[in-house]
Design goal:
alpha+beta, 6 helices, globular
């Protein structure tokens, strides 16, 4: 099976792709295109999957990834950053051709950005902590430092856990409402004392509020589609010993 590359209309003309688990060499619980260095998968399989992912999106480029920590930290990248010594953070920004920016997810929202005119791209890992902490704002600010303008930036939100699959407790909802009472709109009533959180809509709201020119949400739920995506929450609910990670990549040719 070939690597499945999901592309966004908002990023047309820029080398990019949101990848799932189709087209990899891992087996067992990690079957497919697991790119998680921190997983217990066979390291050789992970390396092969990362090479396949890169070749499917930005062939010939050098990959830059992070040790992701659910922060709002954005790093400007001018060289390959991969392997066990990669820096900590949750967003990557570059204006260098030949560098592919990669963000790993397994329910969190991957966000890819581009200002075509300035030749600046970015990739952000937006879990709930990073999203409320402002990781997308940090990515946009770093893009601007390289000459991008937010009124020219296009952004796309890739596969992530959807509201129907994302149950949270009342304390979680109160944290968002304390930050902004209008955030109540991203929570739907669930079972007693619980809510369903729309992470994708919240991230889209943050991007729109920041003034980016175009925001596209792909509307793909990682949790129920086992054949297509890895999901941390699904693996946890099943009591599985580990879970795979998928990658989203953007780069300048």
């Amino acid at each position: 099976m070939s690597v499945e590359v999901i592309r966004a209309a908002a990023l047309q003309g820029v080398a990019h792709g949101f990848l799932g688990r189709r087209g990899g060499v891992s087996t067992g619980d990690y079957a497919g295109l697991n790119v998680g260095i921190g997983s217990d998968d066979d390291p050789d399989a992970v390396a092969a999957n990362r090479a396949r992912a890169l070749a499917a999106v930005v062939p010939g480029a050098a990959l830059a990834t992070l040790y992701q920590i659910h922060s709002a930290e954005a790093l400007i990248v001018r060289e390959a950053l991969d392997g066990p010594l990669r820096p900590r953070g949750d967003a990557l920004v570059s204006d260098r051709p030949g560098i592919a920016l990669g963000i790993l997810t397994a329910d969190c929202a991957p966000v890819l950005f581009a200002d075509r005119e300035a030749g600046v791209v970015a990739a952000a890992h937006a879990g709930w902590k990073g999203a409320i902490g402002g990781v997308t704002d940090s990515a946009i600010a770093a893009m601007e430092s390289l000459g991008a303008r937010r009124d020219r930036i296009h952004a796309a939100i890739g596969p992530c856990i959807a509201r129907a699959s994302y149950e949270v407790d009342a304390a979680f909802a109160r944290r968002f409402e304390a930050d902004d009472p209008a955030n109540e709109r991203f929570f739907a009533p669930g079972r007693a004392g619980h809510f369903q959180f729309d992470l994708e809509a919240y991230v889209a709201h943050r991007l729109a509020a920041a003034g980016v020119a175009r925001v596209e949400a792909l509307g793909l739920d990682t949790y129920p589609d086992e054949s297509r995506f890895y999901s941390y929450r699904r693996a946890t609910h099943r009591g599985e010993p580990g879970y795979g990670r998928q990658i989203s990549i953007i780069g300048l040719a």
